[in-house]
Design a protein that fits this description.
With about 260 residues, the protein is mainly beta. Helices cover about 5% and strands about 55% of the residues. It folds into 3 domains: about 40-105, Immunoglobulin-like, CATH 2.60.40; about 120-185, Immunoglobulin-like (Sandwich); about 185-264, Immunoglobulin-like. The strands form 6 sheets. Strands 15, 16, 19, 21 and 23 form a 5-stranded mixed sheet that branches. Strands 3-2-5-6 form a 4-stranded antiparallel sheet, with no helix packed on it. Strands 10-9-12-13 form a 4-stranded antiparallel sheet, with no helix packed on it. The longest helix is centred in the first third of the chain and has 7 residues, at about 1-10. The protein is elongated and about 125 Å long.
C-alpha cells in the first residue's frame, strides 16, 4: 500500500516548464478623445438694419442683425454696406468661449453737389406792345414792347396780354450760353373767300368760334391775334361742305382761307 502511494505522488517539475504554463498578463489601455478647440461667437448689428456683411472681405449670406457661432479665435475684418449710406469698416477680436459684439451706426451718403447754373439774359419783344408775364411774374407793359430778364436755361412760360384780346401763351426755350432775343408777333392776317358749287363767289357772314364778325367772305385781309379758331361762313340758302373749318393763326403770317359752299 505504501508502495502504491509512492508511485502516485507527482514528481518535481523543471522550473522552465512551470514558467511556460503561466498565462501572460496584459496591461490595460484607455482611449481618450482629443479636446475640441474652444470657439467664439459674434453679434453684428447696424442702424439702420439690413446692411450686407463682409467677413475678411467675403460677403456673407446674412444681413444685419446677424449672429455667427463656432468662430476660431482670431482677429477679423468686418465691413457693412447699405445703399444710400457710407460703408462701415472695423476689426473685431474673437476670444475662446466669448461672444463679441459689433454695433455700427451707418452715416447717410452725402448728396451729390448741384452744379452752379449760369443764368442767361433774354430780351422779349412783343408786337404790338402788351403786358409781358414770364413764369407767372409780370414784367410790365413797356411802351416799346421790349423787356429783358435773367433766367436759367430751359423751358419758360410766357404770356402776353392785350386789352380786349385773349391772352397769348408761348413756351420759351432758353439755351445755355450767350444772350438771346425773342420777338413775339401777336397778330397774323387771314382772308376768307367762299365759293358755291360752280365756283362763283359768295359773300356770306364770317363767324369765328360761333361769334359773328363784321367781315364778309369776299377775300379781304383782316388782322387776328395768334391762336386757334373755328371759321364758319353763313349765306342764305347755302351751307358749308366742311363746317366749321379749323385754322391756326400764327403771329406775323398771312393765311388765306377758302370755304366751299353748296345749296341746302
Amino acid at each position: 500500500m505504501a508502495l502504491f502511494n509512492y508511485f502516485r505522488q507527482p514528481g518535481a517539475q523543471p522550473r522552465s516548464a512551470q514558467a511556460q504554463l503561466e498565462s501572460p498578463r496584459s496591461t490595460p489601455t484607455s482611449t481618450v478623445p482629443p479636446l475640441a478647440p474652444a470657439m467664439g461667437s459674434i453679434n453684428i448689428e447696424s442702424t439702420p438694419p439690413g446692411a450686407a456683411i463682409y467677413w475678411n472681405g467675403i460677403q456673407q449670406k446674412h444681413v444685419t442683425p446677424a449672429r455667427f457661432d463656432s468662430l476660431k479665435p482670431s482677429r477679423y475684418a468686418v465691413r457693412l454696406t447699405l445703399p444710400g449710406y457710407e460703408a462701415w469698416s472695423g476689426f473685431v477680436t474673437i476670444q475662446q468661449d466669448c461672444t463679441a459684439s459689433v454695433q455700427a451706426t451707418l452715416a447717410p451718403s452725402p448728396s451729390p453737389a448741384t452744379p452752379a447754373v449760369t443764368k442767361v439774359s433774354i430780351s422779349i419783344v412783343t408786337r404790338p406792345p402788351g403786358e409781358i408775364i414770364l413764369d407767372g411774374k409780370s414784367l410790365g407793359a413797356p411802351l416799346s414792347g421790349a423787356r429783358t430778364a435773367l433766367v436759367t436755361p430751359g423751358r419758360h412760360d410766357l404770356q402776353i396780354r392785350l386789352e380786349s384780346y385773349p391772352t397769348v401763351k408761348r413756351d420759351l426755350w432758353v439755351k445755355e450760353g450767350s444772350d438771346q432775343s425773342f420777338v413775339i408777333d401777336l397778330f397774323g392776317e387771314i382772308s376768307v373767300q367762299a365759293f358755291d358749287e360752280i365756283g362763283d363767289p359768295l359773300f356770306g357772314a364770317v363767324f369765328l368760334d360761333n361769334v359773328q364778325t363784321s367781315w364778309k367772305s369776299d377775300g379781304s385781309r383782316h388782322k387776328l391775334i395768334a391762336g386757334e379758331y373755328r371759321v364758319t361762313v353763313k349765306s342764305f340758302g347755302y351751307e358749308m361742305i366742311e363746317s366749321p373749318k379749323k385754322i391756326i393763326v400764327t403771329g406775323g403770317d398771312y393765311r388765306p382761307i377758302v370755304v366751299q359752299m353748296r345749296k341746302e
